[in-house]
Structure prediction request, 147 residues.
Amino acid sequence: MKDKQDAFDKYLAKGKPCYFSRFVASPTESIRQIHAAGGLAILAHPPYLMKEWNEAELDGVVAGLKAEGLDGIEVHYSTHSPSQTQFIAGLAAKHGLAVSGGSDFHGETQGGRSGQTVELGAGIGGNLRIPYAVLEALKKRRVQRGP
Prediction:
């Protein structure tokens, strides 16, 4: 194999020997399965749920997911603008959701995200700083949720 793409094209693409169609669960089923596995259901990078940033629409989506058992929302993320981060933090507070964050590292070492390197735990170009208190609060929330 020349590279990962060559392997994908030869074995994993649709119609190839190792292709397997994806199972797509509803948000409600996903939340249920995460809870059954003992985890917290967190909405990752919420701005990407919409084609264009719309605060009212996002608030409605979050309210609906909260009613289904959503535990938290990703506030700290490399590509969130400062105003998005502030708004999403406000949504977390408004809906009683835990705050989370992540670098969204998928193993890329160079040019992974739109030509930008995503660093494990540090985001794009090291621009991500997640307070340790976020982890502590998530652990506390997990204990409160119970088995």
In short: Residues 27-145 form a domain with the TIM Barrel fold (CATH 3.20.20.140). Residues 63 and 95 are 7 Å apart (CA to CA). Helices lie at 4-12, 27-36, 55-67, 82-95, 132-145. Residues 82-95 form the longest helix (14 residues).
